[in-house]
Amino acid sequence: MTTATPSPTPRTRLSPAQRRTQLLELGFRLLATHSLDELSIDLLAEEAGISRGLMYHYFGGKQGFYEAVVQHAADDLYARTAPPDHGEPMERLLASLAGYVDYVVANHAGYRSLVKAATGGNDNLRAIYDTTFAALADRFFTADPGGLVIPDTPAVRLLIHAWQAMVEDLVLTWCDSPAGLSREDLLQVITTSLPALIDTLPG
Fold first, then answer.
1. Superkingdom of this entry's organism (predicted)?
2. pTM for this one?
C-alpha cells in the first residue's frame, strides 16, 4: 500500500503592511534582550529570514528602523498601561502602574536603551518619548475611560511630570537592585506617592 506524501502547508503571503508590522513586532521582541544599539538591520534581517534590502525597503535605513521600533514600543506601553474602566481611582492607578512595572521588567534592556536614546540628542526619538508620556499624563484628567479626574492645573501637571520621571528612574533602579522591596512594595510606593505630592500643593 502506497502512503501519500502530505502536501506542504501553503505559506501565507503577507501584504506589505502586514510584513512591516511583523518586522516591528520582531524588533520589539528583540528589545527584551538587546539594547537599541544592538538592534541592527543585519540582526533583524537574519532573525526574520529576509534580505537586508527588504529591510531598507520597509524602513529606509537604520535610523528609520529605530524610530519605527521605538514608536511601536511606545504604542505597546500605552496600551499595556491602560487603567480599567471601573473601580476606585487608586485601584485604577495601581492597575496602570502594575502594567508599567511589568512592561519594564519584561523589556528591561530595551526600555533602558529607549530612555537613553530619547535623551541622546535625537529629536525624533525624543518626540516619541515626550508624546507618549504626555499621553500617559493626560489619563489623569479624563473621566472616561478610567481617568483619575484630578484637578487639571499647571501646578498639578508640573508635579505629574516630575512624578513620572521619579517613577521611571525608581523602577529602572529597582530592576537592577531591588533593595529589599518586593514588586508589591514598589507598587505601593509609586502609587501612593502621587496623591501625597498633589496634597502638598496650596489649596
1. Bacteria
2. 0.82
